[in-house]
Design brief:
single chain, 180 residues, alpha/beta, Rossmann fold, 6-stranded mixed beta sheet, globular
């Protein structure tokens, strides 16, 4: 069975843990301690193949140059960067996560990553349009999904898509500074 290390990134309160717990346990976690960094393991069938997902749910305070985190990220096969559609600030921070965790640590322009706009069940509180999310993901060459950890919308699909991205990006990583 293949095993893939994935890391979930995003600002405080975007629903990183809720998305992971929804995938792993099939439940919605209403309250979660944002200072906890945790890892999970889940067997999934993706496109007919059994895959072991090892998922690092990062703590919300992703300070620059955290040695342990950077070490885990170097071993990470794929990233899911989550923002909340109800928070313009969390959307604006996606580029920082991409640049710090992928371009700096992995030293590549592109890496298997999925951008997620979570909390799509809160349409009346929306601050970020679906089109803005799609444009940002396109800028980074990443798939994009709007999800709801609460109602299970696109959670499994998004995690499976990062596994598919691994296959598409094998041997295609472009070093930072190279022309693509």
């Amino acid at each position: 069975m293949e095993a893939h290390k994935l890391s979930v990134l995003g600002s405080v309160g975007v629903g990183k843990s809720a998305c992971v717990v929804q995938l792993v346990a099939g439940v919605f976690v209403e309250k979660y301690d944002p200072s906890i960094e945790d890892s999970y393991r889940k067997n999934e069938e993706v496109d007919g193949k059994q895959i072991l997902l090892e998922i690092l749910d990062t703590a919300s305070m992703v300070e620059p140059h955290n040695v342990m985190r950077d070490m885990y990220f170097r071993e990470t096969c794929g990233f899911l960067i989550i923002y909340s559609i109800t928070s313009r600030q969390s959307f604006d921070e996606v580029a920082s996560f991409y640049n710090d965790c992928i371009r700096r640590i992995k030293n590549v322009e592109r890496f298997p990553t999925v951008i997620i706009g979570n909390k799509c069940d809160l349409e009346k509180e929306r601050q970020v349009s679906k089109e803005e999310g799609q444009e940002l993901a396109s800028l980074f060459g990443c798939p994009f999904f709007e999800t709801s950890a609460k109602t299970k919308i696109n959670i499994t699909t998004a995690f499976h898509e990062v596994v598919r991205e691994l296959s598409r990006h094998e041997n295609v990583n472009i070093p930072v500074g190279s022309k693509s």
